[in-house]
Structures are given as C-alpha cells and as structure tokens.
Amino acid sequence: MLGKSLIHSISNSRRRHSSEVISTRGHLMRRSYSSDMGSLVVFSVDVARCAAFYEKVLGFRSKPEATGDIRLIGDGEEVLVHSIPEGIAKKIEISVPPSPREDTALKPVFNVASLDGALDQVRTTGGVVTDRTFTLEGLTRHDVLDPDGNVIQLRSRLP
C-alpha cells in the first residue's frame, strides 16, 4: 500500500564524503560523513507544483521526463517527482497550506547554501516553514513542509 506519505530513496554507487573538526569537552575530533543516497523519489498528486518547490528551494535544474514526471538534478544528487497513480490520487486531499504528513518513517535532509534564502523559497512556492529549528554539530537545521505536506529538513553551516 502506498499510504499518504510517499517518499522513496534509491542508492547510488557514487559516494560523497566530507569531514569536519569538532571540539568535544576540550578535545578536537574529526567527524566524517558519507552518503550513499544519490536520488530521492517523491510521489505527488501535483507533479508540477511539487517539482517547482524542490527546484527553487534546493536550486536544482529541472528535466521533464516523457512520462510526465520531473527529474531535478543537483550537484551529484537528484529528486524525481513522480506522479501518484490516478486511482490513488483521487483519494488523497491536499490542504492549502499543506498539513504535515508525520506518519512516515523518513525525513529527507538537504544541505542548502543559505538557509534564509531556502526558507524564503519555501514560503513562495507553496510550502510551510515550521517552528522546528535547531543547531547541531555546526549546522543550523529547519524543518519545512513541501506542498504535499511531506516533512523535510533543510540545513546549512553557521555563518
């Protein structure tokens, strides 16, 4: 069953690595991160609206597919906004502004160059900026809703 919140990830053979030096109780430590995820599939009732949101918020390039789906391409990452089958889509109601879909086991996290700029784009493209924000390990993080109500997190380095 597809359920209300429809996010699916696909792994990619390309690995992205980064590391940072952090101070913990007076000791310097190097923390390393790697990511195997290169693509995220977001199912949507309104592909064009949802794709415009991710394109503007993440700064990705849009590449429409022959199927009507829209692939958004970033620096080594992509988001595919995929249409929900019509029979299922008829049963899904999206409110304006969207209500959060918190009944999912996933919350995608995206790095953005400017958190303030990305939050402005969320507001102008049909998303919702929530009150949930915090700083952890030198990154400021903010939860937002896409136009379909999927909860995602945007994060950027402290200035």
Structural overview:
The chain is an alpha+beta fold and 159 residues long. It has one domain: 2,3-Dihydroxybiphenyl 1,2-Dioxygenase, domain 1 (Roll), CATH 3.10.180. Helices cover 16% and strands 48% of the residues.
What key attributes describe this structure?
single chain; alpha+beta; four-stranded mixed beta sheet
- The portion of residues forming beta strands comes to over 45%
- Count the helices. How many? 3
Radius of gyration: 17 Å
The largest sheet, given as strand count, sense and whether it forms a barrel, is: 5 strands, mixed
Text of the CATH class:
Alpha Beta
Counting structural domains, the number is 1
Mean pLDDT value: 84
Catalogue the unreliable spans.
1-17
Entry summary:
This protein has three helices and nine strands; from the N terminus they run E-E-H-E-E-E-H-E-H-E-E-E. It is an alpha+beta fold and 159 residues long. A hairpin with a 4-residue loop joins strand 4 (70-73) and strand 5 (78-83).
Write the layout of secondary structure elements.
Layout: E1 7-24, E2 27-44, H1 47-58, E3 61-64, E4 70-73, E5 78-83, H2 86-89, E6 109-111, H3 115-124, E7 128-136, E8 139-145, E9 151-157
Parallel strand pairs: 2-5, 6-9
Antiparallel strand pairs: 1-2, 3-4, 4-5, 7-8, 8-9
